[in-house]
Design goal:
- This protein has 14 helices and 20 strands.
- By secondary structure, it is an alpha/beta fold.
- The chain has 3 domains: about 5-105 and about 200-265, Adenylosuccinate Synthetase, subunit A, domain 1 (Adenylosuccinate Synthetase, Chain A, domain 1, 3-Layer(aba) Sandwich); about 105-200, Adenylosuccinate Synthetase, subunit A, domain 2, CATH 1.10.300.10; about 265-425, Adenylosuccinate Synthetase, subunit A, domain 3 (Adenylosuccinate Synthetase, Chain A, domain 3), CATH 3.90.170.10.
- The strands form 5 sheets. It has a 10-stranded mixed β-sheet with strand order 9-7-5-2-10-1-11-15-19-20, sandwiched between helices. Strands 14, 16, 17 and 18 form a 4-stranded mixed β-sheet that branches.
- A hairpin with a 2-residue loop joins β16 (about 340-350) and β17.
- α4 (about 110-120) packs across α5 (about 135-145).
- The longest helix is centred in the middle third of the chain and has 22 residues, at about 155-175.
- The structure holds inosinic acid.
- Inosinic acid binds near residues 13, 134 and 275.
- Inosinic acid binds near residues 127 and 229.
Length: about 425
C-alpha cells in the first residue's frame, strides 16, 4: 500500500477510526502524529465488539501491526496507561505492537487545571475544549518549557524541569486564577510511577519510521480532529492546538514529505462539530435532534452532543487544497436515509455577495449564510449496501454531485459502524 495520510476534512469526528481500520490490513505501521486524548476513534469489529481509542492508533486492533505515537502527539501518561490496560484486558497484545516517540510532550495535571480555569475565565467566549489539557501542553511546547517523554526518563532533568513548571504554574494559579496551587512532590511521585509503566514503549520515532521506510514497509498516518480544527487552517480561535492537517504527518512523526504517496480526506455525508465556533450549515433544532439521534452524534471522548448540519462543500473544497487530498471517504451516508430532501452548501452569502471560499475572520464566519442546492432524498435503507450499485439512484446522484463539487474522487463509502458496512466506489 502507498504511504497514506488519513485526515478529517471537516471539524473532526468524520469516522477516521473506521477508515484507518479498513486500510490498516494493507499497512505495516500505523502512526498518530498530533493531538492527544482529546480524540476518540471508534472501531466496531466484525463480532460487534466496540473499541474507543483516544491515544493509541486504531491499527492496534490488527495483529502484528506496529503502532507509533509520534513526537507531535501530547501524551497524558495516566490516559495512556488506562488505555493500554483496557486493551490488554481485552486481549489486545499492546506491548508487542506499541511504541511512543521519546520526543512527544507530556500532559501534567496542571495542564488539565489550566485548560478548565482558562475556559471558565473567558466565560461566553470559551472554545468549548475537551478539558484534557491539550492547549496548555502545546502552549508549553511552543514556549519551550514543556517536558518531553525523554525528559521523564532522565530523573535529574525531569526533576529540574518539573520544578520550574510547578513554580511557574503556581504563579498563574495564585495571581491570575486565584486557584489552589499544585505540589511538586505529589506530581513527581505520580510521574515516576507512570515512568515505570511506560518507559518500555519509548523510541526514537524518526529512526523507527525511516528504518521501516528503508525496509519497504508501508506507513499509514492517522489524523485526529479535522482540518477546520487545525491550529493554522481552522476556524481560529475555535480550534485545537495542533496541526490536524496532512502537513502535520511529517512534522509530527519525523519523516520527510516525499515519502507521502497519498492523502485521503474523510468526510461525513453531512457535517458535525463539537464545542463552540461558527457553523454556517448548522441544522434548525428539530432536524438537529433527528440527525443527532439517528447518527448517535455524541462525543466519543466527552459524551457532549455534537452540533449537526448539512454537508458544506465550501469547507471541504478548501480542506482538499490544504491537505492535498487525492481521494475522499464518505461516512454515515445511511444517517440521511430518512431525509425527504438533502442539501449541500455550495457558497456563503456574506455582505450582499456570494463567496465560494471561506472568510478570514470569525466575525465574518458568523455572518455567513449558506447557499444551498437541494436534492431529492432516497427514503431507502442503505445500511445493507455492499457496493455503489446497491445504493438507491438519488443516493448515487448525491455522491456524484458531492464529488463533482469537490472535484475529487470518492473512493470509499460507509453506511454503518460495522467493518463490513463500507465499500470501495471503484
Ligand atoms: P481541545 O482540543 O480540547 O483544546 O478542544 C478545542 C476544540 O477542538 C473544541 O471545540 C473541541 O470540542 C474540539 N475537539 C478536540 N478534539 C476533538 C475531536 O476529536 N473531535 C471533535 N472535536 C474535537
Amino acid at each position: 500500500m502507498p504511504n497514506t495520510v488519513v485526515v478529517g476534512a471537516q471539524w473532526g469526528d468524520e469516522g477516521k477510526g473506521k477508515i484507518i481500520d479498513l486500510l490498516a490490513d494493507a499497512a505495516d505501521v500505523i502512526i498518530r502524529f498530533q493531538g492527544g486524548n482529546n480524540a476518540g476513534h471508534t472501531v466496531v469489529l466484525d463480532t460487534g465488539e466496540e473499541f474507543v481509542l483516544h491515544l493509541v492508533p486504531s491499527g492496534i486492533l490488527h495483529r502484528g501491526k506496529l503502532c507509533v505515537i509520534g513526537n507531535g502527539v501530547v501524551v497524558d501518561p495516566e490516559a495512556l496507561i488506562a488505555e493500554i490496560d483496557a486493551l490488554t484486558h481485552r486481549k489486545v497484545p499492546v506491548d508487542e505492537q506499541l511504541l511512543v516517540s521519546d520526543q512527544a510532550h507530556l500532559i501534567f495535571p496542571y495542564h488539565k487545571m489550566l485548560d478548565k480555569l482558562k475556559e471558565a475565565r473567558v466565560g461566553p467566549g470559551k472554545i468549548g475544549t475537551t478539558g484534557r489539557g491539550i492547549g496548555p501542553c502545546y502552549t508549553d511546547k511552543v514556549a519551550r518549557t514543556g517536558i518531553r517523554f525523554a525528559d521523564l526518563l532522565d530523573d535529574a532533568v525531569f526533576r529540574q524541569k518539573l520544578r520550574y513548571n510547578v513554580e511557574e504554574k503556581n504563579e498563574a494559579f495564585t495571581r491570575l486564577y486565584r486557584a489552589p496551587q499544585v505540589r511538586f512532590d505529589g506530581i513527581y511521585q505520580q510521574y515516576v510511577r507512570y515512568r515505570d509503566r511506560i518507559a518500555r514503549y519509548a523510541c526514537n520515532g524518526t529512526v523507527v519510521l525511516n528504518r521501516a521506510l528503508a525496509d519497504g514497509k508501508s506507513l499509514l498516518f492517522e489524523g485526529a480532529q479535522g482540518t477546520w480544527l487545525d491550529i493554522d487552517h481552522g476556524t481560529y480561535p475555535y480550534v485545537t492546538s495542533s496541526s490536524a492537517t496532512a502537513g502535520g504527518a511529517c512534522t509530527g512523526s519525523g519523516i520527510g514529505p516525499r515519502h507521502i504517496d497519498r492523502v485521503i480526506g474523510v468526510v461525513k455525508a453531512y457535517t458535525t462539530r463539537v464545542g463552540e465556533g461558527p457553523f454556517p450549515t448548522e441544522f434548525p433544532p428539530a432536524l438537529m435532534e433527528r440527525i443527532r439521534t439517528k447518527g448517535k452524534e455524541f462525543g466519543a471522548t466527552t459524551g457532549r452532543p455534537r452540533r449537526c448540519g448539512w454537508f458544506d462543500a465550501v469547507l471541504v473544497r478548501q480542506a482538499i487544497l490544504i491537505n492535498g487530498i487525492d481521494e475522499i471517504a464518505v461516512t454515515k451516508l445511511d444517517v440521511l436515509d430518512d431525509s425527504p430532501t438533502v442539501k449541500i452548501c455550495v457558497g456563503y452569502r456574506l455582505d450582499g455577495r456570494v463567496a465560494t471560499e471561506p472568510p478570514g475572520t470569525i466575525d465574518a464566519w458568523t455572518r455567513c449564510e449558506p447557499v444551498y442546492e437541494e436534492h431529492p432524498g432516497w427514503l431507502t435503507d442503505t445500511a445493507a449496501s455492499t457496493g455503489p450499485e446497491d445504493l438507491p439512484p438519488p443516493a448515487q446522484a448525491y455522491l456524484r454531485r458531492v464529488a463533482e463539487l469537490l472535484r475529487t474522487r470518492i473512493s470509499i463509502v460507509s453506511v454503518g459502524s460495522k467493518r463490513d458496512q463500507a465499500f470501495r466506489m471503484c
